[in-house]
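In this section we walk through a basic example: taking a raw amino acid sequence and producing a predicted 3D structure, encoded as discrete structure tokens. The instruction is simple. Fold the sequence below.
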Amino acid sequence: MLLLFAALGFTVQQDEDAALLKRAEKLHNKIIAIDTHTDTALTLIRERADMNKVQADFAKLRAGRVDCCFYPIFVDQGPLEDASRDSAFDWTVAKMKAIRAYIEARPREARIALTADDIVKNKKRHRLSLVMGIENGYPIGRDLSRVQTFYDLGTRIITLSHNYDNDICDASRYPQNTWGGLSPFGKELIKEMNRLGIIVDCSHASTATLYDCLALSTAPVICSHSCVYAIKDHPRNLTDDEIRAIAAAGGVIQVTTGRWALSWLPHAEVNIGTFCDHVEYIRNLVGVEYVGIGTDFDGGGGMNELEDASKMKMITVELMRRGWTDRELELFWGGNFLRVWRAVEKAAESAK
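The resulting token sequence is shown next.
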């Protein structure tokens, strides 16, 4: 008898999951789903890349019902010396040209998005949108003219730092408190990014850097791949005060998917539910209008039940199971971020 009840319960659960998945698929036909951070670009253009190991290639993104994915170029931190800065700049330009060529060679599959409206247009044309960017402003060095070069190549987001302080700002992971937040050059950089219409990304930046950016930027700032410090006290995660400050300035927190940011539990116990706990924490703290997703696939992102981008729609299923409305899901998946990007574009127009 117990086995019969267990079997019946399993069947009911299967039916519920199937119904939720059908509803999720229908919703994804109408909304725009955006992943604001991966490290996939460098993986794709690597010689003899094993596509089976790539987490966010075009096919997996389509399978997961993702409409837009950010493909920034990750730049490792080097010494704060002219020769190293120049070398990093040349290397980054070459890599950006390579990923542009990779995308442009596949126009039936994907297009580079340079504006928020491009994403909407590409969705209507059944094309994947890819957004160029830089993770770690180190190759900018102390030369503002390089920002224009990167913009002309398609850069629409710059993550100011990585794990170490650079010429722009202090970082959160291994801070030396070099500048006490933004450097004098970093303050000029924020103004230039605002002028051009480049999104300011404070993931990896120190608390002081974040508050400097919020005070100085004429457009909302984001954290493209961060989690909640109150759930996991990792230096890369955001405190309640930081989350409130970003939301108050009209920005958005894009929750990431790596176990390193989500939980201290063993890997086997970290899953989509753990991720959704962070999402709901932010929603309950500041509102659904200020949360989204930036997976960090191919750079430490992914977990059980979300091993790669092909599983992304299962996040929708889990949030539906938790009672999220279609409107809330639309905001989470892309509506919030599109609002921010359009505000960045509007600030740039005003500056002109």
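Looking at the output, two observations stand out. The chain has one domain: 33-47+55-351. The two ends are 74 Å apart (CA to CA). In the next section we compare this with other chains.
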